[in-house]
Write a structure and sequence with these properties.
Length: 561
């Protein structure tokens, strides 16, 4: 068979085709000569669908659901593993692959499971020629991107992915940890992607331009793939230069990892988006929506490094300090005190956390009570971290994560027994609307319980400008505001606690920890500008509390039965 025939009629190939020097075959289109039907038919022995599903869990499903994605393009569907899983999870999936044999096998696998997959053969370099419409998300998994040997092809493929996504689209792309392979030699936990017990997948040759993998099967057959061993930071740079606004990288489906440990890296890249389209609103005077400011702040690497380090990555709310000066312990005491104020909660209850942050409160509440919970939060960075914690705690069947704003809660009326929030409502300039949404989603007899850094009822807003400036706020609520706004909706006031001393102690302790861990935070990636501004901002909050301008404590209201 001629090389031309191999390229144009790959379905007829019975053997892999290489030149006299296989190590010289470093051309992007060569994959068509490698994925012959006999190899594709054995691919599922290599992958082991059940083992792969157990190892990666809900990782991709959770990320897509948390962002409200529905229409997904699987551009490297292979034999259909992810296309099938995502379809079964309720996503509208199109399965594509450059290999006709892989597309045919994916369709066959879907049919065997009672699904009719929407399939298409598409080379990424001309992706938009072969697909229709725009997608909420694109997944490119199974180390597939490393079939692109030329940088021009990699850049062109990413441009095609970018163009195929909607304005707020998401790209999830993975790769082998070639950094470790190139720098330290090949080793593998053989745990995540290649899960077959009887199959080996190891390189026979590795250099900076080629990784030649050999796949050996129990019947003695062997197949090879020539791939380009791209490094992690190079891939991140390509994604950013292609126009993706933010790139988060995970190792083996974990939110944290040591650089040389994972077998695979997973990059989650967000396309540049217009916040106006995302939230559907803008202030009348054209000023930036405060929700944009909040989202950008908490999604920043500076804020994520600071809060996860100082608070321990569980939550970021004010603690109770009468019996401890440890921030983590004090934060837990706040959660416990709020749970204790509620009527007994059991496994039949549903709780909505508005502004859930890292989700520690709901993980604690669910473990203690058995209730089901939804974490609504504006920061995708925190949501992804929360999802990892939920998976690690084996609570995926009990806690859902939603990316969104609490002025427009995407939940049905009268759905929850409790609406919960900790130190989040200050980030809204429509706090009455937030309370109205809480009223709407609560069942009759349901409870609204929250804490929020507030200004005292008689505070002069002009005296609080340094406090506002720390988080780019334009106001704070007050105890009287929350009481009057809640009662106007029909809520009954159960309790308005005065515990401003805890607010004062909290911000003082956080500032102490910031200064004590300044170099550690810098080494972790936080900028001096951010840390210095934070130190001044925290001091301003302490001063404002000492001067009587602030208030804080549990605010508890009930919707009449």
């Amino acid at each position: 068979m001629t090389d031309n025939r191999a390229e144009t009629d790959e379905l007829a190939l019975t053997q892999q085709v290489y030149s006299e020097d296989p190590l010289a075959d470093r051309e992007t289109g060569h994959y068509r000569k490698e994925y012959v039907k006999a190899f594709v038919d054995k691919w599922d022995e290599l992958i082991d669908w059940r083992g792969r599903a157990e190892s990666e869990g809900q990782f991709f499903i959770d990320i897509l659901r948390a962002r409200g994605k529905e229409r997904v393009l699987d551009v490297a569907c292979g034999t259909g593993f992810h296309s099938v899983r995502l379809t079964e999870a309720g996503f509208d999936v199109t399965a594509a692959d450059g290999s006709a044999n892989m597309v045919a096998k994916a369709f066959e696998n879907g049919k065997r499971r009672g699904l009719i997959l929407k399939t298409t053969q598409a080379d990424w370099r001309w992706l938009n020629r072969d697909i229709a419409g725009k997608y909420d998300a694109i997944v490119c998994l199974g180390n597939s991107f490393t079939h692109l040997h030329e940088e021009s092809d990699r850049r062109r493929a990413l441009a095609e992915f970018y163009a195929a996504l909607k304005h707020d689209g998401l790209l999830i792309l993975d790769q082998r940890n070639y950094d470790a392979m190139l720098d330290n030699g090949f080793s593998t936990k053989h745990k995540y992607y290649y899960c077959g017990d009887q199959v080996t997948a190891e390189p026979s040759h590795v250099d900076e331009g080629l990784c030649r993998m050999v796949y050996s099967f129990p019947d003695g057959s062997e197949y090879t793939l020539n791939m380009c061993p791209i490094r992690k930071n190079y891939m991140r740079r390509l994604l950013q230069e292609a126009g993706f606004e933010r790139v988060r990288t995970y190792g083996d489906f974990q939110e944290t990892y040591a650089e040389d440990e994972p077998d695979f890296f997973i990059h989650v890249a967000e396309k540049s988006a217009l916040h106006l389209v995302r939230w559907g609103d803008v202030s009348e005077n054209g000023a930036q929506d405060i929700r944009d400011i909040t989202e950008d702040y908490y999604d920043s690497d500076d804020a994520d490094t600071f809060y996860s380090t100082i608070w321990g990555g569980e939550d970021l709310h004010i603690g109770r300090y009468s019996e401890t000066d440890d921030i983590r312990t004090a934060s837990d005491r706040t959660i416990e005190s709020m749970i204790d104020r509620l009527p007994q909660i059991d496994s039949t209850a549903r709780v909505l956390d508005m502004g859930a942050g890292y989700g520690g409160a709901m993980r604690t509440l669910v473990r203690k009570t058995g209730a089901e919970a939804v974490c609504l939060n504006i920061s995708e960075t925190q949501n992804e971290y929360n999802l990892g914690k939920i998976r690690a705690a084996k609570l995926t069947d009990k806690i859902g994560v939603r990316h969104g704003v609490f002025e427009e809660v995407q939940e049905a009326d009268a759905r929850f027994d409790v609406v919960w929030s900790q130190d989040a409502f200050l980030h809204s300039d429509q706090r009455a609307k937030v309370l109205a949404e809480a009223w709407r989603v609560l069942k009759p007899g349901g409870h609204l319980i929250f804490t929020d850094p507030m200004q005292s009822d008689d505070a002069d807003p002009a005296m609080l400008q340094p406090v506002y400036d720390r988080l780019q706020l334009n106001s704070l609520g007050s105890p009287s505001f929350y009481r009057e706004a809640a009662e106007a909706l029909g809520f009954e006031t159960v309790e308005q606690e005065d515990a401003v001393a805890d607010l004062r102690s909290h911000y003082a302790r956080v500032r102490e920890e910031l200064l004590a861990n300044y170099e550690k935070l810098r080494e972790a990636g936080a900028s001096t500008q951010y840390l210095d501004k934070m130190a001044v901002g925290l001091e301003n909050w302490v001063k404002a509390a000492d001067e009587g301008h602030l208030a804080w404590g549990v605010q508890h209201f009930r919707k009449p039965a």
